[in-house]
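Suppose a classmate hands you a notebook page containing two proteins, each written out with its sequence and a corresponding row of structure tokens. How would you begin to make sense of it? This section walks through that situation. The first entry is reproduced here exactly as it would appear on such a page.
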Amino acid sequence: GGRAVKIIEDLWQVGGEGFTAPGDAAVYMVRFRHQAALIDAGCGPGHRQLVDNVSACLPPGTDITRLLLTHCHFDHTGGAAAIRDHYGCRITAHAKDAVYLEAGDSDVTAASWYGARMLPLRIDEKITSDRETIPFGSGEVIAYHCPGHSPGSLVYTAVLAGQTVLFGQDIHGPLHPSLLSDRSQYRNSLKFLLSLEADILCEGHFGAYKGSENVQNFIRQYLY
């Protein structure tokens, strides 16, 4: 059986530590009527469990058409190819991180931290602007370039039932030279995230935070 958590209507956590395989970053699923997107992919070994978790909560007649990657790190991208093969979805990433994914760079993607190798991953849709709207189903997700943790880190926002959901992923870092992290960009990105005034934060390793005050407090703690 699958293990998934419904955060609000049309929003679930379907992967991550305790959901799929140890070491996996969080995987979220957002749905707009007949189409859904996954945000991030885990490391890969938990693929079958992820598929079970998705099946457990995906309403009938809904297709997964997109895999939206927040950044190139292995705990978010190692499982991406298997997800595309399974669902036939398109993979989106920022061009500045797509470089390291397509090259199969095990250092910048931190695959080597996990004792793994990053196999070259083709990115179907490369985001090059600071803000891009991605329409699907009856709604849209907005991608924002928020570098710092990695050169091409993205966050995504979606409005569900009048609430702004922020897929902020690795707000907590870490920052490391081998990841090409940049502290001043990171601080600017955190300030930008505060300005989005999200009602719900879906974080890369700590799950979902509800309520704008909780979201702001979570982000703010990494600024100081």
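The notebook's second entry, a different protein, reads as follows.
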Amino acid sequence: TTRQLVAEINFDFGLGLERPFVIGAVADLHFNVCNQQDRLDDELVYTEQCRIWPENLKWAIPAAKALEACDFCDATVVLGDTLDYMSSGALNYTKANLFDKYPDAMVALGGHDHTKQMQTGKPDLLPTEERLEVLKAVWPHDIHYYSRELAGKIIAVVIDNSQSKYLPCQVEKLEADIDRAKKEGKIILIFQHEPIISKNPKEAEVRAVIENSGSHKTKKIGVDPIIIGGADRCDEITLKVYDLITKNADVVKAIFTGHWHSQFYSEVVASYEKGGEKISTYIPQYVISGCPYHEAGLLAKIIIK
């Protein structure tokens, strides 16, 4: 029998669905494994020596339980950091236990997924683009931007902000999905790894609903840069995508992320135009706790009406 910790998130958007649509979301699986091929790579040998957390495939069981529970959902999303670091062993394990087993899963990219250096104090030897090419060869869909229509009324957008910024290739695709949602009376749900700033004066600091292992008890979401990661990464493209998300709140209805390894909720200041008038509102943003902290696996059930 599959047992897991379930966090339910309920929405009633008045979509007129025949029954509620359920999305299973899991975050931060952190598969960590090196194989014989990896041990021919000096960079990965050093990472394996230095990486303190987690131990070799320690979190495979709770991750498997959470993913199995997604069989009872209508769609599955993984919110980044599927790999603990980029090794052949971790990629092979992920392919066999996620991509092949759950071929319809939508999998966002996290920063851990494309780095070979973890807790080494050294930069990656290969440029980021070369490391991303390795992932592109095995990922089940476009790693930077992927969207899918669900239940005829929902557009799920899986967008890469794993480098603490958005990317030029995402702008036109997001614009097209927003335009389509407005014309066809659909809503958009954003799935990504890192949370965005809320710009909400009530949220200079937000506290975890579920505190785990003494870490990530609070986050300064209201005052940090637009993408948590540093003001130097808040470039023109990042601002453009941020504006597309937050200034089209008539169709962009919620944001779901991982990265912080605890359960957080915030309200992102947002707006939309109606009849030439600017309407102020907010977009709910949910941070889903990482699987490793919950022995039976953590599943977020996003229930949409």
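A careful reader of the second entry would note: Residues 208-217, 223-232 have pLDDT under 50 and may be disordered.
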